[in-house]
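Comment thread on ticket #2218

A.B. wrote:
> Attaching the input chain for the structure job we discussed in standup.
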Amino acid sequence: MKITIKNLNNLTVQNNDNEKTVLSVLQENCVDWMHACGAKGRCTTCKMIVDEGIENLSLITEAEERFLSMGKLDIKKERLTCQTRLLKGEIKVVVPNHSKLPHMKYSN
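C.D. wrote:
> Ran it. Output below, let me know if you need it in another format.
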């Protein structure tokens, strides 16, 4: 399974464990990703915009449901990396502008 981050110069990481969250996979591959609440599903700073492969992700979680009802998550194209697991195939994602880290060099 593969995660590609389009606005990090198409950085790609591999994962073979569909029990790990996307955030865990990114961290294990030394990719810094904003997560202000410590990956507990209490904020939306770890949000990713899914350009391709949203059907390959786990079902929406209770935490994501809460943010969806508050209008802070668009479930058709956004998921929380700390809550979501890649179950099969690949996804292509983008880091939202509000979650970009100052020490990272993002591409267009």
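A.B. wrote:
> Thanks. Noting for the ticket: The two ends are 24 Å apart (CA to CA).
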